[in-house]
Amino acid sequence: MKPDLPYRNRSEAGRLLARELLRYKSKRDVVVLGLTRGGVPVAAEVATALQAPLDVVVVRKLGVPFQPELAMGAIAGDGVEVLDRELIHAVGLTDKDVAAAVARERAEVDRREQLYRGGRPPLDLKDRTAILVDDGLATGSTMLAAVAFARKRLAKRIVMAVPVASVDALEKLGEKVDECVCLAAPDPFFAVGEWYWTFLATQDAEVVRLLAENARRTALPLSA
Prior knowledge:
By secondary structure, the protein is of the alpha/beta class. It has a domain at 10-57 and 120-217: 3-Layer(aba) Sandwich (Rossmann fold). The chain has seven helices and eight strands; from the N terminus they run αβαββββααβαβαβα. The protein has helices at residues 10-19, 39-50, 85-90, 95-117, 141-152, 167-174, 204-218, and strands at 30-35, 54-57, 59-64, 67-76, 80-83, 129-133, 157-164, 179-184.
């Protein structure tokens, strides 16, 4: 059943998304991972419904310096870096330009990792099913980094779950994951925010709160 768009907010989108993932409920090898920051409120609803532990993948888009909204790649925790070499070459960027952008965003990734986990390591993903959740996909660049993160952490199965996505992003990511769950793929697609009535920026404090609430509810530590 297709949802009525736009969604009221990220929480509603998460509850609707969870309905399509109930086969993973109460399975001990399942971990829900929200892409920071906007994916975390969605992921929190999914984790609650599935009675699963919640963690984050700290991701940052790498924007072209003179056109920040144009993604030339993305990075994630654990030193993960995914670059669109074809685009980088097409816009005439040098290795030095790219390295500067990576260094700038890596500093923010490190800051958020420290803030969200208080220095604790991510949940252990080895031999587990990782459900990667975001509030939506436009280009899919940050989700690509999240998938690479989960692969590096040796997840045995990667499920990508989003309330809404562009057709292009789904095509790009479909072959990168073991399963793709997407509630809606409207066309044309210009931005994720157009498919939500309320789409305020998710703040660091909300991410920290949602992680803490899930940890109490599941009685599991944030590190394995």
